[in-house]
Amino acid sequence: MSDEDWSDELAELRRRQAEVRRMGGAERLERQRAGGRLNVRERIEALVDADSFHEVGSAAGMAEYDADGDLVELKASNCVMGRATVDGRPVVVSGDDFTQRGGSADATIREKAAYPEEMARELRVPIIRLIEGSGGGGSVKTIETTGRPNLPGGVGTKYDLMLANMSYVPVVGLGLGSVAGLGAARLAASHYSVMVKETSAMFVAGPPVVKGLGEDLEKQELGGWRIQLAAGGVDAAADSEEHAFQLTRRFLSYLPSSVDEVADRGPVADDPARADESLFSLVPRDPKQVYKMRRVVEAVVDRGSFFEIGELFGRPVITGLARLDGWPVAVLASDPFFSGGAWTADACEKIIRFTDMAETFHLPIVYLADCPGFAVGLAAEKARTIRLGVRAMAAISQTSVPWCSIIVRNAFGVAGGAHRPAGRFSLRYAWLSAAWGSLPLAGGIEAAYRAEIEAADDPKAKLQEIETRLEKLRSPFRTAETFAVEEIIDPRETRKLLCDFANLVAKRRKPGMTGFGMRP
């Protein structure tokens, strides 16, 4: 062997890498498989483009040496991470290895766990977190293995990187097993989060801990997907891990790689002038009757492009991503099936988070509005609806992205008035079915005209007379006469006008730091 031959060192490197790839060993890998879950390396392979994963830290782990200083064993750290591509676009992937001490701090190299967060921010590429276990958080055994208690937020803590990335790059969190503590925080600190039905659960602390508080619950009862989706803890539930990876790829397809870019135009495969005849008669004349707003959304965006986010939370409001003539947009829409489309406290939270994301990544917003105001009643007051409502209004008015509103039916009260940002230009159209005012006529007439109605010989006839008179006055055409609403349109024209909007504002999208990405 010549002096310039490095074969021994290369063999040592390959040995160490092989040790690391064993992960927690055959027994623990089999246990993972028996639980219906892929291991971390299988997950990365299934998620990213074939042969695109470049692992960073492939020889990092906890080493054991003999008396002569020779390596006996190298136990892998519980973080597998690196660069890859998804649909040809660079991403950073960070995956928890549950076969190594359940993903806890006992098997974590903090610098390695923090590195992908730094890499994503500095390279300005999306980061995808594959989370299982505590995500590198503490374990009861940690105090014994380190010889001291860990002070949360102390030296070496990288919370700032995890949170700051939401203002720089798209962040996707996938909960692929039981996720607790820091792992739950990493899942929630994302623009889009997914759990896998039946095999995933998320909680601040798991069943053994809360049992000490008198709550004896199984994992799914405490933090299963039904709990978390309804609470808004996560955005979606996948049928399988592969389905979760599909959702990830689709979500990222609507977004730029960072705040320094704008999203690309997608395929142009749908006629922008397509007019859906069903829209003309979709909204009932009876204001108490509901209709399917998702049917409206699907009819006006590019076919098959609507990607809903947070379907089971804040249900009076529908949120999602879509395309208009190929251009990606953020879609807000009222859902009259829930509280008549009124803004509840949780709907306001949903609006805040969604509009923040649209602002962060320069996505134009389309709002299909049918809002009779804020939710009212004791439950609404206890839920501090008005406080959250004002925050939602502020989030809308703080946006700088292009905005287009379609008033489909109701726009009443303070919340109804928040159908577009205050104080700046936006496009606005109203359907023939639109109605607006400070208060809906129903119920308000009896209060405003009580004395006149009670004094009448026939109170019912007097009420009907007043209703008829006011109904004529509340016609949207009266508003259009004074240009207090810009245009009233045939509903069948909506798609063409929205595609016009998307094309007009495409050049107005402005990349750069916005500062609105911090609220998870």
Instruction: Tell me what portion of residues adopts beta-strand conformation.
Output: 15-25%
Radius of gyration: 27 Å
Oligomer: single chain
Number of strands: 18
Domains, number: 3
- CATH-level-2 architecture of the largest domain: Alpha-Beta Complex
N-to-C span: 58 Å
Helices and strands: which structural class?
Answer: alpha/beta
**Helix segment count?**
21
Silhouette: elongated
The CATH superfamily of the largest domain turns out to be 2-enoyl-CoA Hydratase, Chain A, domain 1
Integer average pLDDT: 90
Descriptive report:
The chain is α/β, with parallel strands linked by helices and 520 residues long. The protein has three domains: 38-56 and 77-253, Alpha-Beta Complex (2-enoyl-CoA Hydratase, Chain A, domain 1); 277-434 and 485-507, 2-enoyl-CoA Hydratase, Chain A, domain 1; 439-474, no CATH class. The chain contains 21 helices and 18 strands. Strands 1, 4, 5, 6, 7, 8, 9 and 10 form an eight-stranded mixed beta sheet that branches. Strands 11, 12, 13, 14, 15, 16, 17 and 18 form an eight-stranded mixed beta sheet that branches. Strand 15, helix 16 and strand 16 form a beta-alpha-beta unit. The chain is elongated, with a radius of gyration of 27 Å. The protein starts with 6 loop residues before the first helix and ends in a 15-residue tail after the last helix. The relative contact order is 0.08. The model is unreliable at 515-520 (pLDDT under 50).
Quick structural gist:
With 520 residues, this protein is an alpha/beta fold. Helix content is 36%, strand content 20%.
